[in-house]
What we know:
Blueprint (H helix, E strand, L loop, with lengths): L25 E6 L3 E3 L2 E4 L5 E7 L3 E2 L6 E4 L6 E7 L6 E10 L4 H4 L1 H5 L4 E6 L5 E4 L6 E8 L9 E10 L5 E2 L3 E3 L2 E3 L17 H5 L17 E2 L2 E4 L2 E4 L4 E6 L2 E9 L4 E5 L5 E2 L8 E8 L3 E9 L6 E11 L20 H4 L8 E8 L3 E6 L2 E3 L3 E3 L4 E7 L7 E4 L2 E3 L2 E3 L2 E7 L5 E6 L13
Parallel strand pairs: 19-25, 23-28, 26-35
Antiparallel strand pairs: 1-6, 1-9, 2-5, 3-4, 7-8, 8-12, 9-10, 10-13, 11-12, 14-15, 16-20, 17-18, 17-20, 20-23, 21-22, 21-24, 24-25, 26-29, 27-28, 27-30, 30-34, 31-32, 31-35, 33-34
Amino acid sequence: MPDCSSVQRSLAWCQGKPELPGVKRRIYYISKYDILYWPVLQHDANGRLTSAAYAGDFVLRADAKWKFIDIISDKSQLTSDAQGEYPSQTQLNKLVAVHPGVDEEASSAAAYLNNNDNVFLVEDMRGAIRVVGSDKWPTKTTVTQDLGQGAAGTTSTTINVEATDECPAPFYAGIIATEDGDINPGGNPNQNTGGNSGSNSGGNNGGSSNTGNNSGSSSSAPSYNSSVQINGQAYNVTKGGTVNITGNLTSLRFTGSNMSYLSYKPNNDMETEIEINSAGTSASCNVVISAPNTVKIYRQEGTGDDRYDVLWFTINLTASSSTGGNTGGNTGGNTGGNTGGNTGGNTGSGHTLTITRTGNGSSSVTANGSNVTSGSELPAGTEVTIRVTPAEGKTPNALLNGDDLTLTENGGIYTGSFQMPDSNANLVINSGWNDGHGSGDMN
């Protein structure tokens, strides 16, 4: 039987506490097409929203950035109204953003905002970021323009936004990657004034807007959401459980609160740490691990000096007709006796790259923007990039099939590249050893 206990909480307000109205003079927007992964709104087992704050970061496509629009604060407004009927009510969030210009640049806004599904970020007067736009429903954006009337008239280009969501414009404390640099790289310190200031939900489900403030805190235990994304699909995982995937593993994404360490380890390969954002709320990586294979996911639990790594769950990769290297896509249409002649070859994705690492620095190998692990198959001619952070005071080196690869140093990081040959290849990366250490590196 489902747990139907109430999720309602008291809503307090301190006498004399100022509530500053309005929005600040710069908003940010981006097309949903450029968003690879969304942060997560937290729900209970019955699908009821438990927090109005996102956990995690917006993960954008390569080279995609949030664009800004400067607005007139006194004429701009963010509102929210309930819509629909019980038990399917939602919120209609409405943004009116008034830009003073009417020149060619302002006029062209209609071309790229109208008929596009966008997301907007609005900063309130307390410094909290609100999100207008959802991954569930489309965003309607319309642009109007007024050239003014007479000598005393006023010009304006107005962006009107309507977006359905589960609650009034959710709060967001994650990274905002803009053309001028990242905003909130360590979490938004002002965000603890929004959403759940009177509750402790942030410490338990990662949904409170103050999740970033506890990153790295040894007194707070990490919390990992059971919903994870594998190859862009959501899966519910359990500790010690197994997820079965048909085909190769290409991406992983995790959310939670105060996450401190995550890693993946393919069968017979090195354990690789998964980068967690500075707020401890989101972790993701792009990988290329060919099926069949078994990939173990580890996480860190505990607090302070009692933190320890445990096996979280296992991903079992099963080869399909499109990922196997033998029957490869030649059986369709050629089944009348030709399949036998095509099974023994190399009709898979390419040639095998074997990677051997020595030293206790760190290194990564990527191709087409994705991490490459030992045993991956790459087509001939694929550009492969090496990135090495050597052990302190050491100079790294790399060999491809016994030949030295050129590594260029910049800011203590060495990079190099090569094209995958038309045959299997062996790559050796030596990141250097520090005295007293004898274990392989972790990239």
